Amino acid sequence: MIFSANVFACSLVVPKPFIARHGALLAGTPTNPPVIKSAKLIGSLSADPEDSCTGVGFVHITVSSTATIKGTRRKTGFVIRAKSGVNDKNFFPVDPMQPLSITNGEAVVFWGWYFVTPNSDGHLKWNLEVIEVAANGGQSRPAAVCVSTNESCEPLAPNGSEK
């Protein structure tokens, strides 16, 4: 049997929510911001209107910190906040998310969507903050990162985070 590629549905992985103990999201001593190791923004996996992945996009951020070096996905969560450039209201979840993985002290923070409103030039350029949330609810200071679909952001410094 032969199937066309556009017959199959596009699957989107959604991170699990991270729940701090006792619901004390703002409790605890803030820690240093996580170090952004890499950041990618894919606006749409396909431009073909017949493809089920048209409009499916994601932001993929790799971070490291003292907590992720020692932590597991159940002990560390992350919040991604839009500071500027995101045209869709309430785009990112307010509650912390579990990282997709933690390997060698680096956590992969991921958020995906179906359809997003681009800027007037047809591209996306977002200034985001990444906040690490500890198991006790304590939050780090935010780490700033810029992501774009046209490489218009400043590159990350060699040791991570923005220059």
Quote the distance from N terminus to C terminus.
Answer: 53 Å
What structural class is derived from the secondary structure elements? mainly beta
Estimate the global geometry from the Cα principal axes: globular
Radius of gyration: 17 Å
* H/E element order: EEHEEEEE
Strand content: 25-35%
What is the number of helical segments per DSSP (H or I, 4+ residues)? 1
Total E-strand runs: 7
Uncertain residue ranges: 1-7, 23-27
Major sheet: arrangement of strands: 1-2-5-4
Could you estimate the helical fraction of the residues in percent? under 10%
Main pleated sheet: 4 strands, antiparallel
Rounded average pLDDT:
78
Q: Can you walk through the features of this model?
A:
- With 163 residues, the protein is mainly β.
- Helix content is 3%, strand content 33%.
- It has one helix at 66-70, and strands at residues 35-42, 56-64, 76-84, 101-103, 106-114, 125-134, 143-148.
- The protein has a four-stranded antiparallel beta sheet with strand order 1-2-5-4. A three-stranded antiparallel beta sheet has the order 3-6-7, with no helix packed on it.
- The longest helix has 5 residues, at 66-70.
- It starts with 34 loop residues before the first strand and ends in a 15-residue tail after the last strand.
- The model is unreliable at 1-7 and 23-27 (pLDDT under 50).
